Amino acid sequence: MAAFDEGGITNPPLADSYRMLLQRDELGGGFVPAPRALARESLAMMERDLPMIDLKRLTSGDARERNVCVDAMATAASEWGFFQVTNHGVGRELLEEMRREQARLFHQPFHTKEKAGLLNGSYRWGNPTATSLRQLSWSEAFHVPLASILEEDDDELAELRSLSKVMQEVADAMSRVADTVAGTLAKNLGHESSTFPAAAGCDWTTCFLRLNRYPPCPFVPHTFGMVPHTDSDFLTVLCQDQVGGLELMRDSHWVAVKPRADALIVNVGDLFQAWSNNRYKSVEHRVVANSKAERFSVAYFMCPSWDSPVGTCAEPSPYKPFTFGEYRCKVQDDVTRTGKKIGLPNFLKGCTVDSLT
After folding, report:
1. Which residue range or ranges hold the Fe2OG dioxygenase domain (predicted)?
2. Most CB contacts within 10 A, which of 20, 110, 114, 349?
3. Which of 161, 159, 124 is CA-nearest to residue 142?
4. Integer Cα distance of 103 and 126 in angstroms
5. What distance in Å separates the CA atoms of residue 218 and residue 237, rounded to the nearest whole number?
6. pLDDT tens, residue by residue, 326-357
7. What is the pTM of this model?
8. For residue 199, which of 144, 275, 88 has the smallest C-alpha distance?
9. Measured at the alpha carbon of residue 318, what is the angle toward residues 314 and 323, in degrees to the nearest 5?
10. Which letter does DSSP use for residue 103 in this model?
11. Collapsed DSSP state (helix, strand, coil) of residue 320
12. Average per-residue pLDDT in the chain?
C-alpha cells in the first residue's frame, strides 16, 4: 500500500490536472463521470478469466496437441483479442526483480523522473494536454525503445544501475514470447515461414518496453488509470501485478481481467488486425484507478520500423496500403483534432476522413 503523495515530491501532478479539468468541466456544465462507478466491489463480480494458452504444447511431440494449441490461440485472438499464456519461459524471479527495480525507479522524486536524460527521455505521465477528464490517465510510465536500454549512463542514479540489466533480460524474454505467439498466429493464416515478426519489419531496434505505475488515486469513482484505447502495434505482451484493474471490452460490456500470477497477458494490436484482414481483433481496453494500492505492470510492444508497410496476409485486403509511420501520424492527428483515436477505420478502402468525424 502507498498513500497518495499530495505534495508532488514523488508522484507527478496528476491531482492538479484532475482538479483543473474538473473545475473547467463544472464551469462549462460538461462534467460527465466515467461510464460507471469503479468501486472494487463491483469489479470483483465482473472479473473473468481470459482464455489460457499453454505455450509448452506448441513444442509437443504430438502433432494433434500442437494443432489444438494453435487453434485455441487463433480462436482467442479472433473472439477475444486477448488471452493469457503459461509456460512462457519468463521466470517468476526475474519478474519479481523487475518489479522491485520498477518500484525503486518510480519512487524517485518527480523532478528526477522527468529529467530529459533519464532512460532516453522516455518518461511520461497522465496526459498533460487533456482537455477533459475523459482524456486523463492517472498513471506514469517509461516507454523505452529496446535499443536504448543499455545506453543509460547517469551518475546521479548510480543506485538504479541494475535497472537496465534487468530491463534487458525482461525484454529478451518477452520478445521470445511475442515472436512465438506472432509467428504461430501468422502461420495459422498461411504465412509460409516462422519469421513473421522480422518479415513485418519488427526487430530489436523497433520494439519497446514500457514500465507502468498507477499511483493511488483519491478520485477513484470518476478516474481512469489508463483511458480506453487499442494498441497501435502488432502484439503486446503484458505482466501485471495482483492489484488488478485491467478491463477489456467484451460483447459491448467492460470485463475485468482476473490477475493470475503465473501467466502473461497477450493482446492483438491494430496492425495485426489489419494484417490479418480483421480475422484477429484489436480490442479496446482500459485500466481503472485504485484508491489505496499502487499498481505496476510491464508491457512489451512489438512494433515495426517507422517506414515498414503493414501489409496483409492475403489479398484482397479491406485496408489501403499504409506504413506504421503513416498510421502513428494519423492517430496523433486524430487525437489532436477530436480528442480521441480513430485508428484503423481511417485506412479502410473507400473511407474518407469526413465520414469518421
Report:
1. 203-304
2. 110
3. 124
4. 18
5. 29
6. 999 999 999 888 888 999 999 999 876 555 55
7. 0.91
8. 275
9. 80
10. H
11. coil
12. 88
For 169, the grid coordinates are 533480460
Residue 323: helix, strand or coil by DSSP?
strand
**What SS3 class is residue 228?**
strand
CB 4 within 8 A of CB 12: no
- Given 3-state DSSP classes, what are the helix, strand and coil percentages for the chain, each rounded to the nearest 5? 40, 20, 40
* Bridge pairing between strands 208-214 and 295-302: antiparallel
| 147 phi and psi angles, rounded to 5 deg | -65, -20
Give CA angle at 162 (157, 166), nearest 5°.
Answer: 130
Q: Could you give the CA distance from residue 173 to residue 146 in angstroms, rounded to a whole number?
A: 12
Name the one residue in this structure whose C-alpha cell is 505505475. 213
- Give dist(CA 6, CA 278) in Å, integer: 45
What are the grid coordinates assigned to 258, written together?
A: 482476473
Cβ pair 2, 294 in contact under 8 A: yes
C-alpha cell at 119: 532512460
Instruction: Read off the C-alpha cell for 336.
Output: 489532436
Edge-to-edge strand list for the sheet holding 123-125: 52-54, 82-86, 264-268, 235-240, 295-302, 208-214, 140-145, 123-125
- Strand partners for 302: 235
- Contacts of 329-336 with C-beta under 8 Å, sequence gap 24+, read 331/232
Give 153's contacts (C-beta < 8 A, 6+ positions apart): none
Strand ranges of the sheet holding 47-48, from the earlier edge strand across to the other edge: 47-48, 253-257, 246-250, 285-288, 224-229
DSSP structure string for 24-91? HHHHTT-----SS---HHHHHHHEEPPPEEEGGGGG-S-HHHHHHHHHHHHHHHHHTSEEEEES-S--
Q: Helices 63-79 and 161-188: crossing angle, nearest 10°?
A: 100
Domains in the chain, CATH or no CATH each:
14-314 (2.60.120.330), 318-357 (no CATH)
Rounded-to-integer distance, Cα 307 and Cα 131, Å: 31
Residue 265 pLDDT grade (very low, low, confident, very high; cuts 50, 70, 90): very high
